[in-house]
Amino acid sequence: MALIKAAQSMIAVGKLNVPVLEITQAADVGMGSFYNHFDSKEELFEAAVADVLDSHGAVLDLLTSGIEDPAAVFACSFRLSGRFFRERPQESRILLANWGALLSADRGLAPRALRDIKAGVAAGRFHVEDPELTLAVAAGALLGLGHLLQSQPDRDAGATADAVTEDVLRLFGMSPEDAHQVCLLPLPDMLFQE
Amino acid sequence: MALIKAAQSMIAVGKLNVPVLEITQAADVGMGSFYNHFDSKEELFEAAVADVLDSHGAVLDLLTSGIEDPAAVFACSFRLSGRFFRERPQESRILLANWGALLSADRGLAPRALRDIKAGVAAGRFHVEDPELTLAVAAGALLGLGHLLQSQPDRDAGATADAVTEDVLRLFGMSPEDAHQVCLLPLPDMLFQE
């Protein structure tokens, strides 16, 4: 949809304080069309971030489709998502401000992560009693990671993301050795810039 | 300060959409005085939440002052903080919307948690390589817990908070048995209502 694409372009270059009129002009739609779909600019930006999360999730599915071990699938996705905060600072800022979207049960990353956690349990790799609760904690850990990477620009994003991934895997009941091994696996290339 | 107290009273009864004028009248100060201290109502609400976190931290310090084991101090504080989300829904809503305040390094809960994590490491109870990173992950876990307790009102707040505390303690490098034991300790009474 043209308005979401326009909002994503604005977000990508850090233009967050633009008037609605400028967004509708960039999208080549009328003001009425905007208010048919969204109550406010914030709502449009939130939809734009949800859309980014959907795309990000679809890319992760593609990149991990060849990996058999569910623990390795989760680790790869989490390590790449951590790096995303450093590579895409504008989307990250909006995401951190609208973090409910990350935890939303029906779109974006949450349903994929829940699927991966359950697959890890079924394969005997994870030992988790309450997958929904574990998902909330893991998503919170990802947010804490994102906040830290944004507030400490000199921090090594890759090493920090991998350390949090190891933490989360141990929290999922993996042994420290197994968690460490799975985070040493080579990462697929992910193009963060569109 | 009168404005902060007035804002906390509004928050406590769920009046979040009040005009600034109503807040200044409740605080018995002029509009000019408001804008000398705050740029917006959101900024005042954020300061009010930071103040709640400071008080909460001071109460936790008092309640845990008799506990010697630093792991038990952290566990007690985390278990009580999780319950806070259920007991004080209005403050929690503002806190979840302004979660940067929770992670702020210089006020409220973050410096206390960092102190407790370092004490646990010094006592050989926690095995943590990067305390700042661990703090960010633990704070994120607390946010995820808060989000879950707010979005699932039927969920048992005590059991859920204790489960997340165990998760976090294992992430701090405690054995599952030790983490479980420390979360079975009796909790001091905490009056959540003012």
From TrEMBL, chains A, B:
Protein species of origin: Mycolicibacterium sphagni
Keyword tags: DNA-binding
GO MF annotation terms: DNA binding
The protein's name in its UniProt record: TetR family transcriptional regulator
InterPro entries found in the cross-reference section: Homeodomain-like_sf, HTH_TetR, TetR_C_40
DNA-binding region: 19-38
Pfam families, per the entry: TetR_C_40, TetR_N
Transmembrane feature ranges: none
Segments forming domain HTH tetR-type: 1-56
Keyword Repeat applies: no
